[in-house]
Design a protein that fits this description.
Layout (H helix, E strand, L loop, with lengths): L2 H23 L19 E2 L3 E7 L4 E3 L3 E12 L4 E10 L7 E3 L5 E6 L2 E6 L3 E2 L4 E9 L8 E11 L6 E15 L14 E3 L6 E5 L8 E6 L5 E7 L6 E4 L6 E9 L2 E9 L1
Amino acid sequence: MSRIRLILLNFGLLCLAATFMSYNSNPPEGKTGAPGESTCSDCHSGGSSTGNVEILGLPSVINAKEFYNINVKVTKTGGNATKAGFQLVALNAANQNAGDLSTLASDHGTNSENGREYVEHRNGKAFVNNVAEWTFKWQAPDAPDSSNITMYAVGNICNGNNNTSGDKVVKVNATGKLKVKSTSTNDLISHGWNLYPNPSKDFLYLQRPTDNTQPVSWQVFDINGSLLKSGESNSILGDIPIEVSTFVIGQYFLRLNSGTDSYYSKFVKL
């Protein structure tokens, strides 16, 4: 083999090793098995170890804007695997990012790609009593009411050879339903605002309470949590129009932001 070929071969091996090491400390995004995504088995495979991954801490009823401690637990049930990694994403029913992820320790971190936020391992974690787990915070989104939130997670049960061979990939998902509490502190109508006509065919109008002179912004969501339209108004003169003529017939959710407060209301498009 010529010296040039040897140099190129060694360079390629170094690049490959660097890639494996970088994935160990910071895996590529979009590998959770969520809709539109593959899993870590794109690279990792061939492992004889067995096990599972769990998402713990997501309740069946999720309170809007509340913080939750979420735990991803990878359990080895057989084989010679020595460590594990993970990646998780939270999506609404429209498969858009839902809520906000934040870290609690240095053994995991967050990254974003294509509008989705991921939490994932930073360096593989050794199994202790056949378990490797990570705990992080997730803040639920603030709308819309009764929409489903699903977390998708993948676990990689690894043999620790710093390569992609001999690893077992497992996946799981967990779903809860978002609940926006209708109280005097966040219900639009009971807080002095008026939304009319409801049901509506072409235009909705937001009428301010007489004592409100602050700039406002608003967002309209469908029942799956997809943001359809948004706007803002700095004028205190006249009611605020929102065109809904292009919406399909059905139920929608309006979020109104005024100062530091947010208010909510449902409306029906005819």
